[in-house]
Amino acid sequence: MLELKLGWQSLRNNKQLYLPFTLATSLLIGVFYIFQAIINNDSLAKIPTASAINSIMQVALVFTSLIIVVFMFYINNIVAKQRNKELGLYSMLGMTKANLFFLVLGVDVCLFGFSLVLGLLIGLSFIKFVLLAFVKLLDLKLVHLTVFSGQALLLTVAFFLAIFMALLLVDLAKLSQVRPVELWNATKKGERLPKNSWFTKLLGLAGVATLIGGYYLSVITKPNASVITTFFLAIILVVIGTYALFTSASIFFLNLLKQNKNYYYKRNHFITVSGMLYRMKQNGVGLASICLLCTASIVALVATSSLMAGKDNQIKQGAPLDVSITSKKITPATYKKAQELAAKYKVTLINKKSQRISHLALANIEAGQLKISQDANTANYEVLTLPLADYNRVEGTNYHLKNNELLVYATDKKVKLKHLQIKGKNYRVRMLSEYKYRLGDVATLTGLYLIAPDAKSAQSLLNIPLNETYSFDLKGTDQAKKNYSQAASQQLKGRNSENFVTTKVEVSEIINQFYGGMLFVGLMLSVTMLLTTGMIIYYKQVSEGYADRARFKTMQQVGLSLAETKQAINSQVLMVFMFPIVVAAIHLCFALPALASVLKLFSMYDLKLLLIVAVTMLAILIVIYLLIYSLTTKVYRRIVNAD
């Protein structure tokens, strides 16, 4: 059949277009299958954090699916535009639209078939290594994850079949609406010169204002329950502002450069500015997408890597001692049972600590006044109280307090108080730099421990009764300590579960699994976004190369040397493709305050660690970006015959 033969010939002759598309799609199919295989793995239901991890994976899969759909439609549009000239030639040689339909159908079916088979092979080949990394990150010991999942395979095939059917329908619909000569001239048709109208200026200013608004929200975000909502609102504003910045605002800026005759009428500047102006509408959207993908990947990596890097400190905060028991009243039977379990599991109870502490209360501090809040969305602190004698005993200190004095420890070192008014009474505050054996159920907001002169005043501060706690470390082999901790979690609760038991083993397991799962998702999302970013840059260079080839050839005919051509290309490509990574770095800088507030919800207060991780990840991203830029620029040069 002639159509199939021509379709196969088109695939072979246009490897520069179709091969990267096939490879990128195959990798995305492999990533999608791996996500599905993990989500649909029944073995994960056995771990304590299964529900939370599965929810995170589901959200990540939805986000990945959206990226895949947008990416494939975007790239398919570029590929279709480049092959239209070939279709136009066939049409003028006598092929009907029906013949062209079958030719496009054959090409798309081949692409889908190759991509699907290769993608599933990639997914099935790498799933074992990915699962090993998953198990390692989550510190899973006895969980066996199934490598092959028939359900994941069917879902992957169905998802990508739906995408390819949609792409095919779009291609055929466009083909039915154009004439042969339009197909022939489609690749030669460039973007119209955008007008520097009042609307463009207004849209550009509105975009910049929106971007600044997003930055402002990010900077002023406070670590309370509403931080997630505020952060997402800031993200929406930054996304809108970024697209406006790269389209309208960039056109306004380029027109300013054009009006500067001393700058514009120089060989390299003239070629760069004029070329960018004629295609800025198309470039702006693509460059904004590249910028946002880079920003999203770096933010995801910084957030998840920071949590993982600080997990040991989080474990120490959640469980300062190996076993902690909290109750309204610790009974002699509890002490006796703890000792009996120690003898049974061959461990010794050491470093025993007893203290009284209240349940937490949500609060804000306004103008030096502590106000109890019932709304978790507006509260900034989780406050607990305890007597001075208990603090001195567990910490080995010898502080003294007057009736109008408080010792205060804040989990966030930035909190500095000198005076505090509580229920109309003014207290002089002395801030503590350390509370090594602090207990209590501080979970999300900044913890504020108020240490009063005695038990009566500690209880009356917030009108919350004091609980008794009994904590200790274990001495013995690691396995013996683990066995004791597991038994203590069940047997020290008492008959009516009057005791609340926390063990370092449980806290470590939960944090390792939850943070490890988040890091795994962050890595998978970043790989997906960087892959799509690389392909967008590649096809952008290809489309720009075909659009610029005739222009550079004409300029060479009127005196532009090969060396000058290369210099002009470097200037234009550098100006176009460095802009997104620079703006992405700026986005990250303004995202860090909001990111720090979000991480405080996970009791991550180490801002120095966050900055170190952010700088490291940004450096890695820039290196990867420059590598992609270098490789794709070579493709651009070959297309315009500058190499």
Q: Number of DSSP strands?
A: 11
- By helix and strand content, what is the structural category? alpha+beta
- Global geometry: elongated
Order of helices and strands: HHHHHHHHHHHHEHEEEEHEEEEHEHEHHH
Q: Taking all residues together, what is the mean pLDDT?
A: 80
User: What is the terminal separation in angstroms?
Assistant: 39 Å
What is the helical fraction, as a range of percent? 55-70%
Give the helix tally: 19
- Strand order within the widest sheet? 3-4-7-8-6-9-5
Taking all Cα atoms into account, the compactness measure Rg is 31 Å
Strand content: 5-15%
**Low-pLDDT residue spans:** none
Largest sheet: 7 strands, mixed, barrel
What does this structure look like?
The protein is built from 19 helices and 11 strands. With 643 residues, it is an alpha+beta fold. It has helices spanning 2-13, 15-39, 50-92, 97-138, 150-176, 180-185, 198-220, 227-259, 261-264, 267-278, 280-309, 311-318, 332-344, 388-395, 455-462, 478-491, 504-557, 562-600, 607-639, and strands spanning 323-327, 348-358, 361-366, 369-372, 381-387, 405-410, 419-422, 425-431, 446-452, 466-475, 500-503. The strands form 2 sheets. It has a 7-stranded mixed beta barrel with strand order 3-4-7-8-6-9-5. It has a 4-stranded antiparallel sheet with strand order 2-10-1-11. A hairpin with a 2-residue loop joins β3 (361-366) and β4.
Features:
single chain; 643 residues; seven-stranded mixed β-barrel; four-stranded antiparallel sheet; 11 strands; membrane; cell membrane; ABC transporter permease; ABC-4_Integral_Memb_Prot; transmembrane helix
